[in-house]
TrEMBL record, chain A:
This is Multiple sugar transport system permease protein. The chain crosses the membrane at residues 42-65, 108-130, 142-162, 190-218, 239-261, 299-320. It comes from Longimicrobium terrae. The keyword Nucleus does not apply. GO terms for cellular component: plasma membrane. Signal peptide: none annotated. Belongs to the binding-protein-dependent transport system permease family. InterPro entries: ABC_transporter_permease, MetI-like, MetI-like_sf.
Automatic annotation (TrEMBL), chain B:
GO terms for cellular component: periplasmic space. It comes from Longimicrobium terrae. It holds the Pfam family SBP_bac_1. It comes from the Bacteria. This is Multiple sugar transport system substrate-binding protein. Belongs to the bacterial solute-binding protein 1 family. Residues 1-22 form the signal peptide. Keywords: Signal, Sugar transport, Transport. PANTHER family: ABC TRANSPORTER PERIPLASMIC-BINDING PROTEIN YCJN-RELATED, ARABINOSE-BINDING PROTEIN-RELATED. It is found in: Periplasm.
Length: 327, 426
């Protein structure tokens, strides 16, 4: 049972890594010609998907953009005549709200610390599991992957006990080293590290599988050649593994960072954004504005600011990685 | 604007037939079906009350739909947008102003005064008042919820208070004496820093009204509110209350039983919880002490409302009347532990004999509602946010209250515009 599930999982993961590799290499070939240039019938095959994407993705996004320039709220739900066109006021007001900047800081803190940490842990685990001498690989893969497929709400309840100041396992362990108890979820300085810790633990298994697939795609002959040339373990990692893994790394980094910028469920179930708003993320702020207080116009503005932030972050990453891979 | 209208029409066009189909419109033409939405635990047990009503009213069937509290607000709003509201619903009384502002609710004044079975005088005045907006009544109180003091009589007696404190001076003195007998991680009172009712109640006890000018502006820097807020913050500064949020206390009953906490301010649902979970030590309830003698508390609870676009208003009103009968209310209390909103229900042996409910009966004569504006819930949530800053020493009391006024004024901007426009148009 376990064998079959990990087996199929690996196939789809490999496929994803393959897509990443194709996307990475496609650019170097100077791009493919549009399919319709060769055959107009292609549009008819694409049409159903394009129509669905247009109706269920593009239209709502445009509607949300329009809403972000209005003050659509609970009064407007009652009578649409209570809607005012406010232009950029939602955005200017947002930029003048300390809570928004705090949410943005919290989100960057989470993404810039948690994202690389998660990728590092995934890569480390993948390298370890890819070693030939490791036994029970299937077992370890399953165990490391298990948190990823466990319901987050259940995980959060268990972690809340582990983080408990007086009865928690973590402080019990720290106490064994003579370190004082940490008020994990109650101290504004520790709440975000606590959330990062839990998220990394919960999410690293997925990237680990992608990395394992990527590692297995690197031809064994390259390592043999490097070994014959007298390369050390570090040199083999730096000059064989990393370049071979580059497309996978780009894919994983971009996807992970986008995911981490959308932090929501963890603080929602663990802290509700507290203490002192230290774990309020931009998405949590958007949720509260939109679905708790029904300030839809405001919430839409938050969403578009987050969209721009993620877009910029992704472009920066791609630019950095292009330089890194060209160098 | 037209776009939004179009969306509403489309949503209604799709949702209404779907819902009608889902509800399986019965073939019997002479039977009126009332759709009733109830939340949480109430939704589970209200089914037991329906057969008696249907027996007495052969021409009416009641269809109960249970909705979890966490989804209730959103579901009611989307139902309103889609034109698919039920005939009758349970509605938290702090939501009544919001649905009134939407124009979703039917005023009940004419029906209530025409019927002898729901005399207004029999309801607790503060609770009835939560349903009255601009002089009209939009809901009938179903059950009440107010906050009182839950405490350990043994610990208080050992600190020199065989009777619970009656005013703030006694309360403060009792807490200091308790603290003197406690360890460093034990506290006389638990006031979770992410709960708004405690600071709001203390501020209202000293005469604070939260808003001014008909709900146009925040009024938190007002000396009356400030006095109560000061008292709240002082409890933390003196170490009488721990700086913890509710999510950090994994089991407050256990902490209470272990003597790590001697008092809390909480509601009637805890009577049931305490009865089953706090078994090893004595516990009791008392009305809240106020600045100079017994103090006010919050007029919370749920109301029964009739939706404006119901097609069976008369049948629905009969169901509301049935649920409001003192005998039905007592039965409901026995099923849920929810406290009835009518004085006559409290004379039944089931309630009169319950000494832990007695504190609530006493408190219900002194309850005040939150400001009756749709933004009330967002506003009170800002109170704990700024309260937390003051409690944790990130802001002085003045700074926290000024920030609170600024936050609240921003929330009320739309309301001010609406009020000005309405007055300008008249």
């Amino acid at each position: 049972m376990t064998d079959t599930t990990t087996g199929t999982g690996e196939i789809s993961i490999r496929a994803e890594a393959g897509i990443a590799a194709v996307a990475g290499s496609g650019r170097r070939r100077g791009g493919l010609r549009a399919p319709a240039e060769r055959n107009p019938a292609a549009y008819w095959f694409l049409a159903p998907a394009l129509v669905l994407i247009f109706i269920f993705f593009f239209l709502p996004v445009m509607a949300a953009l329009g809403l972000s320039f209005t003050d659509f709220d609970i009064y407007a739900v009652g009578d649409p005549a209570n809607t005012r066109w406010v232009g950029l006021r939602n955005y200017t007001q947002l930029l003048g709200t300390p809570l928004f900047w705090q949410a943005l800081r919290n989100t960057f803190y989470f993404a810039l610390v948690g994202g690389p940490l998660s990728i590092g842990v995934s890569l480390g685990a993948a390298l370890l599991l890819n070693q030939k001498m490791v036994r029970f690989k299937g077992l370890f893969r399953t165990v490391y992957f298990a948190p990823f497929v466990t319901t987050l709400v259940a995980v959060a309840i268990v972690w809340r006990y582990m983080f408990h100041t007086r009865y928690g396992l973590l402080n019990y362990g720290l106490g064994a080293f003579g370190m004082g108890p940490v008020d994990w979820l109650g101290d504004p300085r520790w709440a975000m590290p606590a959330i990062i810790l839990m998220t990394v633990w919960k999410s690293f298994g997925y990237n680990m599988l992608i990395f394992i697939a990527g590692l297995q795609a690197i031809p064994e002959e390259l390592y043999e050649a490097a070994r014959i040339d007298g390369a050390s373990a570090w040199q083999r990692f730096r000059h064989v593994t990393l370049p071979g893994l580059a497309p996978t790394l780009v894919f994983v980094t971009v996807i992970t960072m986008i995911g981490f910028f959308q932090l929501f469920v963890e603080p929602y179930v663990m802290t509700m954004g507290g203490p002192l708003r230290s774990t309020t993320s931009v998405v949590l702020l958007m949720y509260e504005e939109g679905f708790r207080w029904w300030r839809i116009g405001h919430a839409a503005a938050v969403a578009f600011v987050l969209f721009i932030v993620i877009l910029i972050a992704t472009l920066v990453q791609l630019a950095l990685q292009k330089r890194w891979s060209d160098a | 604007m037209t776009f939004i209208n179009r969306v509403r029409q489309v949503v209604a066009a799709i949702a209404v037939p779907l819902l009608a189909a889902a509800c399986g419109g019965g073939g019997e033409a002479d039977v009126a079906t009332i759709r009733f939405w109830a939340m949480g635990r109430e939704g589970e047990v209200v089914e037991h009350l329906v057969p008696e009503f249907e027996r007495r009213n052969p021409g009416i069937r009641v269809q109960v739909q249970q909705i979890p509290w966490s989804a209730a607000h959103e579901k009611l709003l989307t139902a309103f947008v889609g034109g698919a509201t039920p005939d009758v619903s349970q509605l938290g009384n702090s939501w009544v102003p919001e649905f009134q502002a939407l124009g979703a609710l039917e005023p009940l004044d004419a029906r209530a005064s025409a019927s002898a079975s729901t005399p207004r005088a029999d309801y607790f005045a503060g609770i009835w008042d939560t349903n009255v907006i601009d002089g009209r009544t939009y809901g009938l109180p179903w059950y009440v919820d107010t906050r009182v003091l839950f405490y350990r009589p043994d610990l208080l007696a050992a600190a020199g208070y065989p009777q619970p404190p009656k005013n703030w001076a006694e309360w403060m003195d009792a807490m200091r004496k308790l603290k003197a007998r406690m360890g460093p991680s034990q506290f006389p009172i638990l006031l979770p820093t992410n709960e708004w009712p405690q600071p709001v109640i203390l501020g209202m006890q000293t005469g604070g009204t939260l808003l001014r000018d008909g709900g146009r502006w925040g009024d938190f820097s007002n000396p009356a509110f400030r006095r109560g807020f000061d008292f709240y913050v002082q409890l933390f500064r003196e170490g009488l209350a721990p700086r913890v949020s509710a999510s950090e206390i994994s089991n407050r009953y256990q902490e209470f039983e272990r003597g790590n906490i001697a008092m809390m301010i909480t509601g009637p649902w805890e009577i049931g919880e305490f009865t089953t979970r706090v078994t090893g030590v004595p516990w009791a309830t008392a009305p809240l002490p106020g600045p100079d003698g017994p103090g006010v508390s919050l007029a919370g609870g749920a109301s029964l409302v009739l939706f404006r676009n119901s097609r069976n208003k008369d049948a629905a009103w009969r169901f509301i009347q049935y649920l409001s009968e003192p005998a039905t209310q007592v039965r409901f209390y026995e099923l849920t532990g929810d406290l009835p909103a009518r004085r006559s229900s409290w004379r039944s042996p089931a309630l009169a004999g319950n000494e832990r409910a007695a504190a609530f009966r006493d408190q219900l004569d002194r309850v005040v509602p939150l400001p009756k504006v749709p933004e009330a819930e967002a506003i009170v949530n800002k109170v704990f946010e700024q309260g937390e800053r003051a409690v944790r020493g990130q802001a002085t009391v003045e700074q926290a209250l000024a920030a609170l006024d600024a936050d609240v004024d921003r929330l009320l901007e739309k309301r001010r515009w609406m009020l000005d426009r309405r007055e300008g148009g008249q």
